[in-house]
């Protein structure tokens, strides 16, 4: 079968016969493929012939006792195989999930690793029949058009919808590992920071509100505008900043809610507790419009609200004046 040099087919290919293509190509035998697909040999042969007519070229060379893929057939098969595998994988997941309760959460990677995931075991122990799916991305998703149930976000109050539930606010504070504090220079006053490497968010200056995460803002607030550290160490993500501080690489200007557990365990030390910096940012929970009434979503929201209350207590946080009318 040869394609016409003057008339190329442009109609989209129907996918019904691709399973037959895969089976025949794997067995190189129409009879064996038919047995696997629970079809007659003539039915499989007709499916392959119809596919060849749609593509416009021969996909198999027919021999007396076997078949052989043509170069066009091999080219099509290379695209078909991963597509069929993805479809089969998706169907298996759908079948396993059918009838199960689940909660789909979107949040950013640092919050997932530093705050949410360490607490999830408690929820799973209390609700072992609820599946959890976390999509960690720095890009906000549209909850009107996706299958996300809950979004945990980081923003100023003006940038979240009225339905958003405030989890906790934020303060910035200098933290360091106990090991670093024993390594030489005393770190008891703000001026002592000049003897240490300082760790901060490398891209904070690119966004208006994230400028609050910078040491320069902390210096200006506490009248150390001329202070220069031993060196600078920049990272893009809060979990990287915390990890660098935990391993003694310098002093980090950390977000209190994200390092509260490390402070409580003694893995990090708040070195200047009287010199915290208030941030306009806060942490919020948004519930998808189609999800709010499901029992598993309500259970997760109640649980996470209790976790948020514990964090507020740990960091000494109160509600923002602009959100007093919103549920805690």
Question: How would you portray this structure in words?
Answer:
The C terminus is likely disordered. The protein has 328 residues and is α/β, with parallel strands linked by helices. It is elongated. The protein has ten helices and eleven strands. Helix content is 39%, strand content 20%. Strand 1 and strand 2 form a beta hairpin. The longest helix is centred in the N-terminal third of the chain and has 27 residues. Helix 1 crosses helix 2. Strands 3, 4, 5, 6, 7, 8, 9, 10 and 11 form a nine-stranded mixed beta sheet that branches.
Please state the average pLDDT score. Answer: 87
Percent of residues in helices: 25-40%
The low-confidence runs, each spanning 5 or more residues with pLDDT under 50, are 320-328
Task: Specify Rg, calculated over alpha carbons.
Answer: 29 Å
- Biggest beta-sheet profile: 9 strands, mixed
| Shape summary | elongated
What is the number of beta strands? 11
SSE pattern, N- to C-terminal: HHHEEHEHEEEHEHEHEHEEH
Q: How many H/I helical runs?
A: 10
Strand content: 15-25%
Cα distance spanning the termini: 70 Å
Structural class: alpha/beta
Q: How would you summarize this macromolecular structure in one to three sentences?
A:
With 328 residues, this protein is an alpha/beta fold. The chain has helices at residues 18-27, 30-37, 41-55, 71-97, 109-126, 178-181, 215-221, 238-246, 256-265, 295-315, and strands spanning 60-62, 67-69, 101-107, 130-136, 150-155, 165-176, 197-201, 231-235, 251-255, 269-270, 277-287. It has ten helices and eleven strands.
């Amino acid at each position: 079968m040869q394609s016409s040099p003057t008339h190329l087919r442009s109609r989209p290919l129907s996918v019904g016969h691709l399973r037959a293509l895969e089976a025949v190509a794997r067995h190189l035998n129409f009879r064996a493929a038919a047995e696997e697909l629970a079809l007659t040999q003539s039915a499989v042969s007709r499916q392959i012939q119809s596919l060849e007519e749609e593509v416009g070229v021969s996909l198999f060379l027919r021999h007396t006792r076997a078949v052989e893929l043509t170069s066009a057939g091999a080219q099509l098969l290379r695209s078909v195989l991963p597509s069929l595998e993805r479809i089969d994988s998706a169907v298996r997941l759908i079948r396993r999930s059918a009838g199960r309760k689940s909660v789909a959460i979107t949040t950013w990677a640092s919050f997932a690793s530093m705050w949410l995931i360490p607490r999830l075991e408690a929820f799973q122990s209390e609700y072992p029949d609820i599946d959890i799916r976390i999509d960690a991305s720095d890009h906000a998703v549209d909850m009107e058009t996706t299958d996300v149930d809950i979004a945990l976000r980081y923003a100023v109050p003006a940038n979240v919808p009225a339905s958003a539930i405030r989890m906790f606010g934020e303060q910035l504070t200098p933290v360091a590992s106990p090991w670093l504090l024993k390594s030489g220079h005393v770190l008891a006053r703000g001026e002592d920071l000049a003897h240490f490497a300082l760790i901060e968010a490398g891209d904070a200056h690119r966004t208006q509100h994230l400028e609050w995460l910078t040491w320069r803002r902390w210096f200006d607030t506490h009248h150390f505008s001329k202070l220069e550290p031993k060196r600078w160490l920049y990272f893009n993500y809060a979990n990287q900043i915390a990890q660098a501080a935990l391993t003694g690489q310098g002093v980090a200007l950390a977000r209190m809610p994200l390092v509260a557990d490390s402070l409580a365990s003694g893995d990090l030390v708040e070195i200047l507790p009287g010199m915290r910096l208030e941030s306009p940012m806060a942490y919020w929970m948004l519930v998808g419009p189609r999800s709010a009434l499901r029992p598993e979503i309500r259970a997760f929201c109640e649980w996470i609200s209790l976790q948020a209350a514990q964090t507020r207590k740990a960091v000494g946080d109160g509600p923002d004046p602009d959100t007093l009318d919103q549920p805690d």
